[in-house]
Amino acid sequence: MISPAWVWAISGSLFILGAAFLVLRRQLIAMVIGLELMINAANLNIVYYAARRGDAAGLAVAFLVIAAAAAEAVVGLSLILALLRSDEAAETDRLQELAD
To answer: Whose CB among 7, 18, 68, 77 lies 3.0–4.6 Å from 38's, allowing a Cys bridge?
Structure first.
């Protein structure tokens, strides 16, 4: 079985990479990708510890997290697509100008 240190290292690096995408990038699609990486990092820990304990409820929670992340991605990407179709820039700096 894989050691917990490897799982923590992989999920931590995924979470940090997702946070970097979310903070450093200005494109909305890159920000959605960063958010998805962060959710998947947390889900990796849920699946690992649920499988280690043999807990079916933990695996069900992981499945619900995957479903919620997919719904969030669909809504976020459809909003970005609608913004792109309206000939507006899909960057956060431009959206801030539109809000003012």
So the answer is: 18
The residues, any chain, with a CB within 8 Å of residue 27's CB and separated by 6 or more, are 90, 91
Q: How far apart are CA 89 and CA 54, in angstroms?
A: 48
CATH at residue 95: 1.10.287.3510
Mean pLDDT by 10 residues, the chain (100 residues): 91 96 88 93 94 92 94 89 73 61
- pTM summary value: 0.82
Asked whether 37 and 18 are in contact (CB, 8 A), the reply is yes
Domain that includes residue 42, residue range:
4-99
Q: How many domains does the chain have?
A: 1
**Where does residue 67 rank: exposed (0-12), middle (13-18), buried (19+ CB within 10 A)?**
exposed
